[in-house]
Amino acid sequence: MTRFLVDWSELKTAKTGKAYKALTIKDEAGKPTNVNIFSDWPDFANVGPGSHIEGELEQNGKYWNLRSNAIKEKRPNMDRVMEKKSASIAEAQQRKEQSISQAQDRSAWMWAKNNAVILIANNKDLKDREDLIPLVGEMATEIYNLEPNKPF
Question: Is 51 exposed, middle or buried (0-12, 13-18, 19+ CB in 10 A)?
Fold first, then answer.
């Protein structure tokens, strides 16, 4: 990292709305360079003529920027972000799998009860006996009110 002396400073605003300072800095040999530093620069407010700053020159198109190692340390580690994102996706997939399984179980249980009622209602031996009609209705109600894992 190189140490520079700020010779001139002007506060500006980028097209994105982010504040930056246009600086003229001199390296230890006295060579002047025009650079920009952005508002995330350490102690940005106090950077001005006569102050010393440390950084690395970096060209971005036709502009020179000064980068600080302190800024790089503040930025989120992409591996950590991706790890957290993958954990969230895995958790969501597990919840979805569980919900689908529960829905399939409920559906299977509903069809089993429905088929049992249809078998009773369409049983030819029970249809012809009028004395069993109330019993068939009670049996159908009992079947519909059944809960999984409860004996009949």
Answer: middle
Dist. CA 47–CA 146, nearest whole Å: 77
- Rounding to the nearest 10 degrees, give the CA dihedral for residues 87, 91, 93, 97: 150
Give the start-end residues of each E strand in 14-69.
Answer: 19-26, 32-38, 52-60, 63-67
Q: Strand 2-13 vs strand 52-60: parallel, antiparallel, or unpaired? A: antiparallel
Residue 127: the pLDDT is: 65
- Taking Cα atoms as reference points, which of 31, 143, 55 lies closest to residue 21? 55
Tens digit of pLDDT for each residue in 9-23? Answer: 999 999 999 999 999
**pLDDT < 50: residue spans in the chain:** 74
Residue 118: inside a domain: yes
Q: For residues 38 and 18, is the Cβ–Cβ distance under 8 A? A: yes
Q: Do residues 88 and 67 both lie within one domain? A: no
